[in-house]
Amino acid sequence: MDSGTKQMSQSLIVGALLALAGGMLDAYTFLCRGGLFATAETGNLVMLGVSAARGDFTRTLYYVLSVAAFAAGIFTAEHINANADRLKLHWRQWVVLIECAVVACAAFVPESGDLAVCIMVSYISAIQLEAFRKFAGRGGATTMCTGNLRSASELLYKRIFQRGDAGAHVYGLLIVSFVVGATVLGAASGALGDRAVLLACLPLAAAFLVMFVSR
After folding, report:
1. Which candidate, 17, 26, 8, 13, places its Cα nearest to that of 146?
2. How far apart are CA 111 and CA 123, in angstroms?
3. Average pLDDT over residues 33-48
4. What is the 3-state secondary structure (H, E, C) of the chain?
5. Are residues 133 and 126 in contact, defined by beta-carbon separation less than 8 angstroms?
6. Which of 100, 116, 147, 203 is in the most buried spot, having the most CB atoms within 10 Å?
7. What are the residues whose beta carbons fall under 8 Å from the beta carbon of 76, sequence distance 6 or more?
8. What's the CA gap between 89 and 93, in Å, rounded?
């Protein structure tokens, strides 16, 4: 089962489900938790410098903690992978379970804890990004789209003008899934408020179950 689970964890359907969750998480922190993006750290690093330049050291501390949480997420994913032989489930399934647990906790943090929630999202985004790095044989990301957009454009160009290998569809699906996730969360945020993030547990749970399926 472990071999089949590993294959399925790198399948395109798992990638699409994780990108769906990634879009939901990014939209959630922006719409419901103070207008911040927490699934990628480039913006946080930029804002860290800007906040420091303005003398807003409270805001600077948040960005420092967000980046630290992201690094902690990478450490967590690597530690789980390093001890994979001791686990009854595939290590990537444990990553998804951790994500679901953190998402469930974040949904019930009051508005006064918005920054804490963003830090939590940075953490689980990092473990997802580190654990799931390849889909259908191609490297990709499920918590951000810049790299996917670059790869899709590059492969599409090579396919059209140089008769290169197909593969742009892999990145196209990851991008579309991310956008759909953001759209769904945006539509639900008005009615569900801070609890809207619980919707991200649905694609995460689906990804967890799909990994049990053997090719």
Report:
1. 26
2. 19
3. 85
4. CHHHHHHHHCCHHHHHHHHHHHHHHHHHHHHHCCCCCCCCCHHHHHHHHHHHHHCCHHHHHHHHHHHHHHHHHHHHHHHHHHCHHHCCCCHHHHHHHHHHHHHHHHCCCCHHHHHHHHHHHHHHHHHHHHHCCEECCEECCCCCCHHHHHHHHHHHHHHHHCCCCCCHHHHHHHHHHHHHHHHHHHHHHHHHHHHHHHHHHHHHHHHHHHCCCCC
5. no
6. 203
7. 98, 123, 126, 127
8. 6
Query: What tokens does 16 get?
Result: 């699409």
Query: What are the two backbone dihedrals, phi and then psi, of residue 142, each rounded to the nearest 5 degrees?
Result: -120, 5
pLDDT at 138 over 60: yes
**The residue to which tokens 């359907």 are assigned:** 13
Q: Single out the residue of 134, 130, 147, 146 nearest to residue 70, CA to CA.
A: 130
Using the predicted structure, report yes or no on whether residue 135 has a pLDDT greater than 80.
yes
Q: Cβ(60)–Cβ(52) under 8 Å?
A: yes
Q: In sequence order, which residues have a C-beta less than 8 Å from that of residue 4 and are 6 or more positions away?
A: 213, 214, 215
What pLDDT shows up at residue 1? 47
Residues 12, 172: Cα–Cα separation, whole Å: 11
Identify which of 121, 75, 19, 74 has the alpha carbon closest to the alpha carbon of residue 11. Answer: 19
Task: Specify the pTM.
Answer: 0.93
